Amino acid sequence: MVINIFYSGRYVARGLTLFFGEDKQSVTIKAAERLIEKALWVAEVLRRKVAGLHQIISINETKIVDVYMPREEGLLKVEKERFLTVVEVVLTRTPTEEQKKAAGYQAPLKSEGEFLTKESWERGEKERAEKREQRDAQRGERPPREERGETRGGERRRGRPERR
């Protein structure tokens, strides 16, 4: 399973779901440019939550060619090359011998007692589902925001007059 990084917290939850809920043996996290830091953060959090994860990091560079076509006849098309740095983090429970020999290989963490178990993860998922149901039930009893006379902050920024 490949996880692309945009919002980190959701991807930690998705990684935990893959390892505990779907019993996956490995997860690959890919990120480019500015999101590399978040990808490494997600990988490290997962590594500290799931016992026995081996980590293999590889950094690659991808060439991208942007082609701009002219709108008027007689002009030449413009091609612009750029290079994109991409990091790929593989978290696996059962690494191959080739992965163990890779330059970016890191063995599992040794500390015990801090890791999640499948039972503790399922208990947490059940608690979160119950809280979500309670919140949805409470929201169902309340009238819509407009009927309560509440406004959202974005309305003032969009040029609408403030209520006083």
Structural notes for this entry:
The chain has a domain at 2-68 and 79-124: 2-Layer Sandwich (Translation Initiation Factor IF3), CATH 3.30.110. A five-stranded mixed sheet has the order 1-2-4-3-5. It has six helices and five strands. The chain has 164 residues and is of the alpha+beta class. The model has no long low-confidence stretch (mean pLDDT 84).
Derived from helix and strand composition plus strand pairing, the structural class reads alpha+beta
Unreliable spans: none
Round the mean pLDDT to the nearest integer and report it: 84
Q: What is the helical fraction, as a range of percent?
A: 25-40%
Could you say what the CATH topology of the domain at 2-68 and 79-124 is called?
A: Translation Initiation Factor IF3
Count of extended strands: 5
Give me the strand/helix succession: EHEHEEHEHHH
What is the gyration radius calculated from CA atoms? 24 Å
Please work out how many helical segments DSSP would assign: 6
Q: How much β-strand is present in the residues?
A: 25-35%
CATH architecture of the domain at 2-68 and 79-124: 2-Layer Sandwich
- What is the end-to-end distance? 52 Å
Give the gist of this structure.
The chain is of the alpha+beta class and about 160 residues long.
Write the layout of secondary structure elements.
Layout: E1 2-4, H1 8-21, E2 26-32, H2 36-49, E3 54-68, E4 78-92, H3 97-100, E5 105-106, H4 118-141, H5 145-148, H6 153-157
Parallel strand pairs: 1-2
Antiparallel strand pairs: 2-4, 3-4, 3-5
List keywords for this structure.
164 residues; alpha+beta; Translation Initiation Factor IF3; 5-stranded mixed sheet; 5 strands; 40% helix; flat
